[in-house]
Amino acid sequence: MSLIASGQEMRIAPVAEADRDALASLLIETVAANGSVGFMHPLPLAEAQAFWSQALASAARGERVVLGAWLGDVLVGTGTVVLAMAPSQPHRAELTKVMTAPSARGTGIGAALVAALEQAVRDAGKSLLTLDAAVIEGATAFYRRLGYHGVGDIPAYAYKPLGGLGATRLFWKSLDAREITTTSTADHAADEQWMQRALALADRAEREDDEIPVGALLVSAEGEVLGEGWNRNIGDHDPSAHAEIVAMREAGKRLGNHRLVGSTLYVTLEPCAMCAMAMVHARIARVVFAASDPKTGAAGSVFDLLADPRHNHRVEVRGGVLAEEASRRLTNYFRAKRGRPLL
Questions:
Q1: Could you report the per-residue pLDDT of 298-341, keeping only the tens digit for each?
Q2: Residues involved in catalysis
């Protein structure tokens, strides 16, 4: 398959033995950046080459699929699915080693690779895909955005490449062709429009109240704005006055109900645990956020509260909508506070 990424044509295809050295370089680069891929830093070239030689031999035997993503002639990403499973799991495959070069991140290459791997799994007649991902910035939120369900975390699972034990989160996704997909391209366009409004609310938080620029609004299933708000912690002397809470309070008063069934909440920063649990209690249908929060995010980055199967209500999540714009606002707010030049 091919598509356009960052103005260049991207090609995704199976890798070959001739690509081994490029794959090895990508693996070494990932390990050096503390990517949790089963190796410790520094990773010798010979060891990286040996790993890929074994993986490519396994692919030649039909035990796995190894794909690469190229921008022009440069390999900028790779992903693998293992097809060979125990006799009791003929329907399952395991997603492993999804890596994107730092220079190509944020261009959609990782998501395109995963989509191509999912199709390879379907073509192999399998319907369940599982994976584990280190609980680090971006990784778990990435899979949540692609429709993977978090099962739980295993603490102190493995050492990170640069040292120190880290937790791992387990995920699964059904690839059954009968599975209903409810989010359309039109929904995505609407999501960006509503997020622009949330960003305008974030601007008001900083401009009018000198609060951290986070904005939120709640939209009904019919497209009506039910409530909106921005961070009011400092001004209201209220530790619970996050943008999401402010918007939900306004919506509850407007509807005369503590249940906000069928609504979508748009917020410029991934919800924290407090806000996420309020959304669960309110029976919100869907949450769309912009920037991920690697420190306190509860929609997949640190916790996965909105989709936890132990709740009697689960909230659909889409993250990363206008994330770069939201992140820049937050970064510049704190840089200005410290007297540093804006980005």
A1: 998 888 898 887 888 889 889 989 999 999 999 999 999 899 98
A2: 244
CB contact set of 187 (below 8 Å; sequence gap of 6+): none
208 contact partners, CB below 8 Å, separation of at least 6: none
Sheet strand arrangement including 64-71: 2-5, 8-14, 64-71, 74-82, 92-100, 128-134, 165-174, 149-159
Token readout for 94 is: 């395991």
DSSP string, 271-297: --HHHHHHHHHHT--EEEEEE--TTT-
Confirm whether residue 275 is marked as ligand binding: yes
Instruction: Judge contact between 280 and 307, C-beta under 8 A.
Output: no
* The Cα angle at residue 299 between residues 194 and 258, in degrees rounded to 5: 70
* 281 in a known ligand binding site: no
d(CA 263, CA 221): 5
Sheet of strand 215-219, all strands in order from the earlier edge strand to the far edge: 225-230, 215-219, 264-269, 286-291, 316-318
242 is in an annotated binding site: yes
The per-residue pLDDT for range 198-252, each reduced to its tens digit, is 999 999 999 999 999 999 999 998 889 999 999 999 999 999 999 999 999 999 9
- Map residue 306 onto helix, strand or coil: helix
The Cα 116–Cα 66 span in angstroms is 10
CB 247 within 8 A of CB 218: yes
